[in-house]
Design brief:
Layout lengths: L15 E6 L3 E6 L2 E6 L2 H13 L7 E5 L2 E5 L4 E2 L11 H15 L11 H17 L5 H11 L9 E3 L8 E4 L2 E5 L6 E3 L1 H9 L6 H8 L5 H21 L10 H6 L3
Antiparallel strand pairs: 1-2, 2-3, 3-5, 4-5, 6-8, 7-10, 8-9
Helix pairs in contact: 2-6, 3-4, 3-7, 4-7, 5-7
Protein name: Aminoglycoside phosphotransferase
InterPro entries: AGP_Transferase (IPR051678), Aminoglycoside_PTrfase (IPR002575), Kinase-like_dom_sf (IPR011009)
Pfam families: APH
């Protein structure tokens, strides 16, 4: 049984580690407790409700004192990190795939996701910005905008995590112990989650699909790799991250050339 951890008991924990911090939110680690600080309470509301609805392991909520959400740490380690080879076994990737399939087969959450039209409009804006500001070569943007078109089709909505980065899935050996960061959860395209989890780790797609199932649209997955990367570059730059680091978003885009 996990002991109750309250704001008062946190006072005795003297080691604070910044896990991630940017202009919108921050996550801190204090001992074995993770503190998510987010001024957007609607986003935290989604995270709390999505974790309650998800049929797969999620972190235990210890307490909530807006704007802070305290979560218990998960056993094991992340499936991997963007920009680094994943040391996880094929069986661990398959287990992650099975967990994602279980989520996608679950009843839909009550709130909607984004429309194809909204995503296409944002993609056009971002591609224009990338070229106009000489952030990326025009031919690189044009090629990936074309590849991204395969993702912009009608899909049957499923319960999606919405930000299923490889570092958000924790495994212990070949077992999934939990999935983090549910603030973007919604009704969406199943292939978006599959693509997000394998972004920068295309060589592990077949391992993931061994657990998820083979009935996937690989063109759509490739489309989402390009689309997610194109949409991410400006946000990453403006929030102090480097999308051109080895193995990250710009390399994902270059791989399409």
């Amino acid at each position: 049984m996990t002991p109750e951890v309250t704001p008062a008991t946190m006072a005795g924990m003297d080691e604070v580690k910044v896990v991630v911090a940017h202009h919108e939110r921050a996550t801190l680690r204090v001992g074995d407790v993770f503190l998510k600080v987010d001024a957007d309470q609607a986003r935290i509301d989604v995270e709390v409700e999505a974790m309650a609805l998800a049929p797969i392991p999620t972190p235990a909520i210890l307490w909530r004192e807006p704007p802070v959400l305290a979560l218990a740490g998960l056993p094991g380690t992340a499936l991997g990190r963007l920009g680094e080879p994943s040391a996880a076994s094929p069986a661990a990737w398959a287990a992650a795939g099975a967990a994602v399939r279980k989520l996608h087969d679950a009843p839909l959450p009550p709130w909607p996701g984004r429309s194809v039209e909204d995503i296409a409009s944002e993609l056009d804006r971002e591609c224009g910005w990338l070229v106009a500001n000489d952030v990326l070569p025009a031919d690189l943007v044009t090629r990936n905008r074309h590849v991204a078109g395969a993702a912009l089709r009608r899909w049957t909505p499923v319960f999606t995590h919405g930000d299923l980065q490889i570092s958000h899935v924790f495994v212990d050996g070949d077992t999934v112990t939990g999935v983090l960061d549910w603030s973007e959860a919604s009704r969406g395209d199943a292939m978006f989650d599959v693509a997000s989890l394998t972004l920068g780790h295309e060589d592990r797609l077949d391992d993931l699909l061994a657990g998820y199932g083979a009935d996937v649209d690989r063109d759509a997955i490739r489309g989402w790799w390009s689309l997610r990367s194109l949409l991410a570059v400006r946000w990453l730059v403006e929030h102090g991250f480097d999308p051109s680091a080895p193995g990250c978003e710009v390399d994902v885009l270059r791989a399409r050339m």
